[in-house]
Structure formats: C-alpha cells, structure tokens
Amino acid sequence: MKFRARTTEIARIHTLTKIIGVIHKMNKTAILRLNADKMHLIVKNGASSVWTDLDPSNFFDEYNMEGLTEEFNEIYLELNPENVFKALKSAQTAKWLKLKLTKKQCPCLTFEIELPSVMLTGRLVTHDIPVTVIPRRLWEEFEEPEMISFDVSIAMPPLKSLKNVVDRMRNISSYLIVSANRDGNFKLGVESDMVSVTTHFADLQVLNEELANENNNNNNPQVRADIKHFAHILNGYQINPNRVVCNILNDKMLQIFILHDQVTFQFYIPAVTT
C-alpha cells in the first residue's frame, strides 16, 4: 500500500486544519479511509458517530495512492485525530505540506512541512503519526451510514449562535432536548431539578417534506441527546458552512449534515432514554 499527497497552497492547509478542528476532540481515535478519488474521516464515540467526505482535489496538488489490491483499492488507517490537528497547526505558514504513508518503527502517516526561514533554504519539520492499518475483514464496520427515516428535516440556525446557547446549557444538564416541527420552529432545552430552560428559533426552512414519515402523529418530534456530543457538532461553525440540516426521528435519532463547498459532515446522535 502506498499513499502520498502534497499541497503548496496555504489556504488549503488552513481549510484542512479547520476541518480536523471540528472533530479532533470527539474521540482519541479516528479512521482515515483513502481511495482513488475520496478521503473520509470517520469517528465513533459510543453510539454517536461522524462521517466526513472530502474530495482530495480540493486540498492537494498531488494525490497518489495504491490500495490493498487492485480489486480493493482502498486504505483504512486508525490514528489519533489530535495528533493530525497538531501537525496541521504547525503548518499554518508552510511553503508546502506533504503527507505520506511510511514505515518507521511502526506504520506512520508522515507530515513533512517546509516552513519559512531566514536562511536560503527552508526549515523542514517532520511529524510521524503512528497509525494502525485496518485489515480487509474489518472494512465493513466503516461503511457510509444510510440516510435515516425522519419525522422532520429543518435548516438549523447559525452554529455559532447555537454554540453560545449550548455552552451555557451544559452548566445545567448533561442532556439536551432537541425538537422541531414542520412550521419551521426549532427548540433546544435542558431540565434539572431546579430549572427548565428552552431556547426557541422560528421561521426556519423546512426541507425534504416529501421524504418525511407520513405516519408521524407527533407534531413536535424530539430527541433527548448527550449534550457533550451535540456540542462537538457546533464546532462546525469554524468552516463557515453553506447550510446545516437537522433530521429528527422522534425519540430515536438526530442526523445532522454540515454542508460546505469542500467538505460534508454527517453526524449521528442517538436518543438517550431516561
């Protein structure tokens, strides 16, 4: 298996850093899935998960890979996303950035970074990030999730605004009640023995009504979710998304899409039963 990618555009490095910044604290491990024309970052945190879809041509001038075999032309690597984030943060002023799969004392995803220098030649910085190569028999565990059935699909308010609200709510409860309806209303609420707080957002765009469950008798479907997992999603404001969509399956699941020209995130948060 071989992998090599290179970019000389600082704006691409900045965008890639922001993308990793959205998910790097979700879990200590992530899966980097590489194929000929796509890159995916997959994070699982208990029953919650995120699937990230990137087009390498948006980030690299050169992108070459050879997978396990000609038939199974993919590479699956387990790594620590925090280490990737730190490597990219060190490249914010780089002349170029090169990624490659290497064999040191163990398999590594190596970041080679040329930084500006007062000398005639640049300063080369190398980060060797240990990885575990996922065997073929386990690949099916990291397939793209299916679209859930949902009771309502709604365009969410700006993530930065939601983050300010949820950061305060985290002081009240470990669980967040997320609800919406087909009138364009979206609510976030928390409850404790002492207080109940709800924030309302109105006049939002309702989406995909033709795909919603027809037999839904609940006018305000909701999900009681882990507030920490929901808060991770709100870090998506860093990439300045074009749109954020929330699908709610009553008392079952939240599916949230963060859509950007260069990346798509799919987050799945299951309901927490009382």
Automatic annotation (TrEMBL):
GO cellular component, one term: nucleolus
UniProt cross-references to InterPro entries, sorted A to Z: DNA_clamp_sf (IPR046938), HUS1 (IPR016580), HUS1/Mec3 (IPR007150)
Higher taxonomy: Eukaryota, Metazoa, Ecdysozoa, Arthropoda, Myriapoda
Gene3D superfamilies per UniProt: 3.70.10.10
Keyword Oxidoreductase: no
Domain of life: Eukaryota
Protein name: Checkpoint protein
Subcellular location field: Nucleus
One Pfam family from the record: Hus1
Coiled-coil region list: none
Keyword Disulfide bond: no
Signal peptide residues on this chain, from the entry's feature table: none
Protein keywords: Nucleus
Protein family: Belongs to the HUS1 family.
One BP annotation, GO: mitotic intra-S DNA damage checkpoint signaling
